[in-house]
Amino acid sequence: MISISRNDASGRYDMTVDGEDAGFVTFEQSNTHIAFTHTELHDAFQGQGVGSHLAAEALADAASRDLTIIPLCPYMARYLERHPIKGARIEWPNRAPRS
Which among 24, 40, 52, 61 has most CB atoms closer than 10 A? Predict the structure, then answer.
């Protein structure tokens, strides 16, 4: 089972898979914006699709909080390009999204 929790104190969304630490995405947040800065998935979980689950949950949570999303992390930027989040406001850093 995949579980994702938001840890405001550390600025992270943490993910566990079957109770085992699987990865995280870090963020910096203001009152109106959230910048996703780094995504890390532990080696044992690479190639299983759990990174996409982490990205989807973190981005959906940010959108539900009515925050403008700034995808500084390349993984989060690629995910957003391929999987738009309905209702999300995106501020692309210094570039337009790729097709």
Answer: 24
Q: Which residue do the tokens 């995949």 mark?
A: 2
Taking alpha carbons only, the member of 12, 14, 42, 39 closest to residue 2 is 14
The residue with tokens 């990865």 is 23
- 2-90 has which CATH code? 3.40.630.30
Q: Any idea of the CA torsion for 90, 3, 12, 60, to the nearest 10 degrees?
A: 10
pLDDT tens for 14-51 read 999 999 999 999 999 999 999 999 999 999 999 999 99
30 closest CA partner among 13, 8, 53, 50: 8
Domain chopping of the chain, boundaries: 2-90
Cβ–Cβ under 8 Å, residues 11 and 29: yes
Question: Full-prediction pTM beyond 0.70?
Answer: yes
